[in-house]
Every structure is written in C-alpha cells, then in structure tokens.
Amino acid sequence: MSAPYSKEEFLITAVARLLETPDVRHVAVGAASPVPGAAALLVRKLKGGTPRVSLIHGKATNPFTDGGREIFDCAGQGRVDVFFLGGVQIDGEANINLVGTGGYPQSERRFSGSFGSAFMYFVVPKVILFRPEHTRRVFVPKVDFISAPGVSDPDVHRPGGPKFLVTELCIMAFDAARRRFRLESVTPGRTVEEVLDNTGFEIDVPAGVPFTAEPEAERLALLRSSVGREIADVYPGFAKDILGVAA
Amino acid sequence: MTETLNTLDELASRVPDGAFVALPPEYSFVPMALVRAIIRRGAKDLSLLTVPIGGMAADMLIGAGCVRRVECAAVTLGEEGLAPRFVAAVQSGAIEIVDSTCPAVHTALQAAEKGVPFMPLGGLIGSDIVEKRDDWKVVDDPLGQGNGRIVLIPAIRPDVALIHSPLADRDGNIWVGRRRELATIAHAAKTLLVTVERVQDESLLASEATAAGTMPGLYVSALAEAPMGAKPLGLVETYGPDLAEIAAYAREARSEEGFRAYMQRAVFDGAQAAAE
Predict the structure, then answer these.
(1) Cα-Cα-Cα-Cα dihedral sign, residues A93, A97, A102, A106
(2) How far, in Å, CA of B217 to CA of B44, rounded?
(3) pLDDT digit string (tens) for chain B, length 276 residues
(4) Contact B149 A72 (CB under 8 A)
C-alpha cells in the first residue's frame, strides 16, 4: 500500500509549521530550494497573504527589481525574517559546508559553492537548515570547509543565525549560546535511536520527544493544486514530478 | 560609441586569450550563442567571474579547455544538479578556483562602478572563504564606532562582460529590465559585448517606461544580433528554457567523452555553427 503523501510533501508541511509564528513577516527563498519555497507559499496561502514570500528566481513571486544584489541588501537591512540554507556537511556547531570534502582547493569531492550563505547566515534572524539526507556523511563532527559558521565571536555583528534543522528523520532546534542542537521531534515511523545512529555529533535529547505531525489533508490538497501551480513558476520539474502539477 | 558588428564570430574575436570575463547569472540574459562562438574560436586561459552564480555557460567553457581560473559564489546546473565539468576541473586541479559568496561578488563590482578601491561587507567572518582569500582583509571598525570587525572586499574590474538581451535600439541602448546587476557589471567592466534578439528603430530612452529598464549605449562596446541567442537557456519575456536540452547536457557532460560528443553536436557541427 502506498503512503497517502510523499516524503517531500511531508517535509513541506513540516517546514511550513516553522513559519507560522508572528515574527515571520517575510520569507525569502534562494536557489535550488523547492521544498522550502513550497512551504512558504503554502503558509502564505493558508494565512491569506502573510508572510510575504520572495522566491529569488521567480517571476510573479519575485518582488526584487534592483537586480541580484537586492535580496542581500534587503536581508542586511533586517527586512528578511526567514531564509533557508543547506549543506553538503553540517556539524554540531551548525557550521555548514557547501564547497567540498577532502581538501581545498583541490577537493576530493567538489560541490557547487557557498552561494550567499556566508552573508545570509549572519543577518537573517531565523535561518532554517534544510537537509533531507540524514546520514553521518552529512552530519559530521567537523565540516571540511566552513562556508558559513554557526556561531560567531561577540565582536562580530550578527543579528541572525541558525534556529532549526529539518531532515527526513527529525527536526532539531539550535541553541547558539550552548552551541548545540536539541532534538524537537522525530518523523513518524522513525526513532530517536535512528536519529542518534545517523548523526555524527552529540545532540541534546529531552525526555519524551514527540513525532513530527503528519501532513494535514487540507494542506496536501493546496499543495497539489494552487500552491503547486505557484511553485511551478520557479521549479517546473519539481511541481510536475512531486506535486503532479503542470507549469 | 557602440559598434555594431555583423557576426558572432566578430564579437567572439573581441574576447582575447587570457581575458578576465564576467558572465551574468544563469536564469536570464546569458549569451549562450556568443559563448559557443568563443568556444569555437578556441579561446584559452580565460579567467571567469560568475555574477554571482555560474551555470551551463561556465561549465561548457571550462569543459572546452578555455578557462584557467574561476571566481564564483557557485557553479551549478540548478534543477539538473552539479555542473559536471566544473566539478571535474576543480577536483583534478585543472583550473584555479577562487571561492566567493553572492553579495561579495556584487559588492566588488559596486566598488568598481563607484571607482573606489574596496567596499566593506558584513557577515563573512569565520567563513573559510575569508580564510582562503588573501585579497580580502578583515579590519576593526575603521571609524571606531564599536561596530566590531568587518571585511573589506577589493573592487573587481573585469576586462570583458558578456550579456544577451531581448532588445536594443539603433543607439546601442540595451534593455535589461529589472536585472540591475547587469548594469553594475557593465559599469565595472572595461568592455561590454552584447548580443540581442532584435534591434528596434524607436529609442528605448524615448519613453520613461522603457528607459527605467535600459542600460545606455555609453557602456556597450560592441553589439551583434543573435536571435535565440540565449538558447537552450531561457530569456525573460521572450522564451523559456529548453529543459530537455539542458537535461541532455547535464547527463552527457558527466563524462569527458560524453561532453565531447555533446559539444560536437551542439556547438561545432556545421549546421549549428552556420546557424550562428
């Protein structure tokens, strides 16, 4: 029997719940981020237009008219409340690596590059790390290259930083003062032990960790219709293959 | 004064071996036909600046052996994943890689357009990007206002910038719409080579509605018409990306042999070359 929702749909609704707090007025979504983009558009749809959502490679969903720099300027001005980042590697202090593993500059495995992470991680108050693959290959004791650091010394101006990490196994919250992640919830059907087995650094595990909520039927319906059509503006392949919506 | 050239090959010949070349971001205004002409010309030792993210154009130039050095915030094929020839060239050490981050590329070009030697940028400190770059400098707040440490980014002045636009007029004015970073690239670069879908008789500066999205011919060194000049990538308000073709490139370019076969078919074969 097939599940009534896909892994991506589960992740979209899990991310969406992190965007439903009053401090979230403007969500910006960068390149190659269809799940976070869909989550933001879903919340906007549900709440009748709030938060503002800016998809930098979109057309109607992209409000920026001052070129590629505007999203960074806008974030630097404190006008972006949420941004998403990923990582080829992420470590226990929330350092992220988007560059490569096994040496630098001649890496054994090279990836795309740091994109805007080395700036956005500092200035956006609520950065959500989104990395579905939950393995010890990704969640390492120490990243090979720091594209952007999880925490900074007090003499570095840093209004922003990581708040949550969302994977296919769990959601964690990050405590910058303690430089540690704390397990918040576990994907239905998975276990705390499984999370720990696949995480290459120590995390805090409170007693009685709940399961992450499953996707709500109403939200799935929106994803597969109007929200799917909106995300198809930017990610036509994702909208078609995952949500069954043609551009 | 903007020179109007008749062929892409003439334009491609204005990109000398060893030049420092700026390329626009992948999602629009990428001069793919001109890039193919540069590859057919056999350009060598180019230093690329992707503003700030490179894609198929950068990957093809690297795979074709035209590139010595790349400065980028990232090179990626977007939904099609990693840029295979970029990845292979960095892993083998065939090209010099200079990692940056998106706003640092913009800031460096903005410094150049203002004619100042550097500009400060927030964030960054603690990133290994800063650690690995000996041209960036971390300083204490030079004004002594208690703002902490900050990074100084030196201005970047590319030798040549390349852009493909939907529209120009007879005075060499170019429509760039809301992609204002293209104007910044043009202001910062010593030379700007432009291809366009078409040239219209009416001046783009005649109406404020089009003037707002226009880059004046003042910055355009030479221009040639190249219909479908961004294909297989998309061009805003003109045509969408050819997703099947981009997927074919992503698939075939995973191996050196596959890349060569793709390039033979899509860049060098008589029909394609003649059409351009």
Answers:
(1) negative
(2) 29
(3) 678 877 899 999 999 999 999 999 887 899 999 999 999 999 999 999 999 999 999 999 999 999 999 999 999 998 899 999 999 999 999 999 999 999 999 999 999 999 999 999 999 999 999 999 999 999 999 999 989 999 999 999 999 999 999 999 999 999 999 999 999 999 999 999 999 999 999 999 999 999 999 999 999 999 999 999 999 999 999 999 998 999 999 999 999 999 999 999 999 997 677 778
(4) no
B126 within 8 A of B148, measured Cβ to Cβ: no
Q: Reduce the DSSP state of residue A129 to 3 states and report it.
A: strand
Mutation for A interface: B101, B237, B242, most A CBs within 10 A:
B101
Chain B residues closer than 8 Å to A105 by CB: 90, 96-97, 99, 132
Tell me which residue in B52, B125, B243 faces A156 most closely, judged by beta carbons. Answer: B125
How far, in Å, CA of A178 to CA of A107, rounded?
Answer: 31
Q: Is A162 helix (H, G, I), strand (E, B) or coil?
A: strand
User: Parallel, antiparallel, or unpaired for β A82-85 and A126-130?
Assistant: parallel
Cβ count within 10 A of residue A104: 18
Instruction: Please name the helix (run of DSSP H) or strand (run of DSSP E) that holds residue A201, with its range, or none.
Output: none
Of A70, A147, A238, the CB nearest to B127: A147
Residue where the block lists tokens 């696949």: A198
CA distance B137 to B133: 8
- Main-chain phi, psi angles of B123, to 5 degrees: 70, -150
pTM: 0.96
Q: Give alpha helix (H) positions in B115-169.
A: 128-132
| Preceding amide of A149 cis, omega within 30 | no
Q: How far is CA A156 from CA B102, B139, B148, in A?
A: 20, 11, 5
Contact at CB, A149 and B126, closer than 8 angstroms? yes
Of B53, B78, B99, the CB nearest to A99: B99
Which of B93, B37, B34, B28 is closest to B55 using CA atoms? B28
Chain A: give the shortest CA distance to residue B6, in Å. Answer: 30
- Give the whole-angstrom CA distance, residue B114 versus residue B128: 28
Structure tokens at B251: 């698939």
Angle between helices A7-17 and A236-243 (to 10 degrees): 110
Q: Using one digit for the tens of pLDDT, what is the confidence trace for A233-246?
A: 888 889 999 999 98
Q: How far apart are CA A227 and CA A45, in angstroms?
A: 7
CA distances from B79 to A33, B7, B46, B202, B246 (A): 9, 33, 27, 38, 10
Structure confidence at residue A2 (pLDDT): 44
Q: Tokens 């060239």 belong to which residue?
A: B89
- For CA atoms A96, A100, A102, A103, the dihedral sign is negative
